[in-house]
Specification:
By secondary structure, the protein is α/β, with parallel strands linked by helices. The protein is built from seven helices and seven strands; from the N terminus they run ααβαβββαβαβαβα.
C-alpha cells in the first residue's frame, strides 16, 4: 500500500514531508509486524500463562472455524467476568469482531455475534444492538457504567469484561475456532 511512498514517487519524498512521515510510519509498522509475527510463531513453555490458550489445538487449515460456540465458551476462553446477562450464556455465537471504532463496526461488520472493544460508552451497546450482536466483551478490564448495563439488559445483550488486551483476546478466540464474518 505504501510502496509508492518508499520509492519517492509521491510528489517526491525529498520535498514532501507527508511522504517522509508516511515512509517512517511504514518502516515502524513493518518492524512491529515482523516482531509480532516472529514472537507469536514460537509457542514455548510460557503458553500456560495465557488464559484460554489451547496448547493442544493444531490448526487444521480449516478457515471455517467451529460450527458452534456459546457465550459461555467465550467467557471461559477469555477468563471473562459476566457483568450482565448470565442467563443467556448458552446462546450460540458464530462470529466476532474487535474494534474501538463504532463507525467501523457499522460500516464493515456483517452478521457478527460478539463485539470485543475497549470503548466504554452507551453508543457501544446501541451499535451492537443495531448489528444484532448478542455479546460485548470489554477488554483491558474496562468497566461499563450502570447506564450501559441497564441499556444492555433492556436490549438482551450480554456484557462481559476480560483483563486481556484486544489483540490477545481476538487471537485466543480465533485459535479456538471463532472467526470473523469476512472469512
Amino acid at each position: 500500500m505504501f510502496s509508492f511512498l518508499s520509492t519517492g514517487m509521491f510528489w517526491g519524498k525529498e520535498t514532501n514531508p507527508l511522504a517522509q512521515t508516511a515512509e517512517k510510519e511504514y518502516t515502524i509498522f513493518n518492524s512491529i509486524a515482523n516482531f509480532l509475527c516472529n514472537s507469536l510463531s514460537y509457542r514455548g513453555a510460557d503458553d500456560s500463562a495465557i488464559p484460554g490458550f489451547n496448547k493442544d489445538h493444531q490448526s487444521s487449515g480449516n478457515d471455517e472455524g467451529t460450527d458452534t460456540m456459546t457465550i459461555d465458551d467465550v467467557r471461559r476462553i477469555l477468563s471473562a467476568e459476566v457483568v450482565c446477562g448470565a442467563d443467556r450464556l448458552d446462546t450460540e455465537v458464530h462470529n466476532a469482531c474487535g474494534s474501538d471504532m463504532m463507525s467501523d463496526v457499522l460500516a464493515f461488520v456483517k452478521d457478527q455475534s460478539v463485539l470485543l472493544t475497549g470503548l466504554v460508552n452507551p453508543q457501544v451497546v446501541r451499535t451492537a444492538d443495531m448489528m444484532d450482536m448478542v455479546c460485548i466483551v470489554f477488554v483491558r478490564g474496562k468497566e461499563p457504567g450502570t447506564d450501559m448495563v441497564e441499556l444492555a439488559q433492556e436490549r438482551g445483550i450480554v456484557l462481559m469484561k476480560t483483563p486481556l488486551r484486544m489483540f490477545t483476546a481476538c487471537g485466543l478466540l480465533y485459535d479456538n475456532g471463532l472467526r470473523g464474518g469476512a472469512e
